[in-house]
Specification:
The chain has five helices and 17 strands. By secondary structure, it is of the alpha+beta class. It is globular, with a radius of gyration of 18 Å. InterPro entries: Aliph_Amidase/BUP (IPR050345), C-N_Hydrolase (IPR003010), C-N_Hydrolase_sf (IPR036526).
Length: 296
Amino acid sequence: MAEKILKVGYVQQSCSEVRKDNVAKSIAGIRECARRGAQLVALQELHTGVYFCQAEDVNRFDMAESIPGPSTQEFGAIAKELGIVLVTSLFEKRAPGLYHNTAVVLEKDGTIAGTYRKMHIPDDPGYYEKFYFTPGDMGFNPVETSVGKLGVLVCWDQWYPEGARLMAMAGADLLIYPTAIGWDPHDTKEEQKRQQDAWIISQRGHAVANGLPVVSVNRVGFEPDFSGVGNGSRFWGHSFVAGPQGEFLYVSPSDLAENVVLDVDLGRAEDVRRIWPFFRDRRIDAYGDIVKRWGK
């Protein structure tokens, strides 16, 4: 199939408790990506603040905002100014006592092209998201934009092949995972490597199984547990873009902020699916039990 090149950018950054500083970093990264020709720029999960889910604190709900709201206004203006499609992430206040971890896609004219509410919500040491976020209720539907159909999922979603598959089946041109994941500093080097390798393999597997490019954007830097109970988290960066056979197109370092732009050939997905016709050979007649919690 003929090439269909999309210039994709992403911003890998560190974050602090000062929202305006985080927003300034994101915007500076977006501008650099746009200067280098990016048509689409993706930001990491909850990029306007620290990853506050390391502990449970009701005061953190004050960080949440409406859609539309401050973030969609600020970043929508940047998308319009630069003429790019922008994938952002925020802590959404939907109603009193009802909050989501939500990705918002902004079109080139600054309008909201669509949203995705994180479906899979973890509750593990250092990742107490169930305290803050209600599971998404919008399903797995790509956001249609001027640069293609974006299968946007968020962080913990990246461990679930079902979400990636459903996005692909709904016509996504690529999968995008805004992410915040890191190591407990007390973990051994061996354990840290196992965790990071598993994270990489899972997402490259989604690329292979669905014949689609994958963009994964993670944060960097150490963020202490504000409660003083946990050990904090060292976010491992390593943002990457993989092609439809899982091949690395680019990999960022684990410890440095970086703004990346590269060419992604969306047309190659058709070529790959012709030689690896996984969708043709799916046994949809035998998959009924997949909707059960366990076994028969």
